[in-house]
């Protein structure tokens, strides 16, 4: 499970900022289990974001420790 700096859980559909608050993205996928990691062919747990300037971006757990996601809003219900 991935969490924001305030301790709340990161959820699919959340609007976030990454790249030190420079870029907005939407959480598309959260890969935490071995099955999740294998299914998307990556080596480490992480979060997939959809971002206007980049398309899909995968941020590994290592990346997220150095540049945590900043919460903007949850997906509309």
Major pleated sheet: 5 strands, antiparallel
Number of domains: 1
Structural class: alpha+beta
- Tell me the β content: 35-45%
* Mean pLDDT across residues: 95
* Radius of gyration from the alpha-carbon trace, in angstroms: 12 Å
Q: Tell me, what's the shape?
A: globular
If helices are DSSP runs of H or I spanning 4 or more residues, what is the number of helices? 2
The end-to-end span amounts to 21 Å
| Strand segment tally | 5
- As laid out across the biggest beta sheet, the strand order is 4-3-2-1-5
Low-confidence stretches: none
Order of helices and strands: EEHEEHE
Q: In terms of quaternary structure, what is this?
A: single chain
Approximately how much helix is present in the residues? 10-25%
Describe it for me?
- The structure is a single chain.
- The chain has one domain (15-70).
- It is α+β, with helices and mostly antiparallel strands.
- The mean pLDDT is 95.
- Strand 3 and strand 4 form a beta hairpin.
- 16% of the residues lie in helices and 38% in strands.
- It has a five-stranded antiparallel sheet with strand order 4-3-2-1-5.
- The chain is built from two helices and five strands; from the N terminus they run ββαββαβ.
- It is globular.
List keywords for this structure.
five-stranded antiparallel beta sheet, single chain, 77 residues, globular, 5 strands, alpha+beta
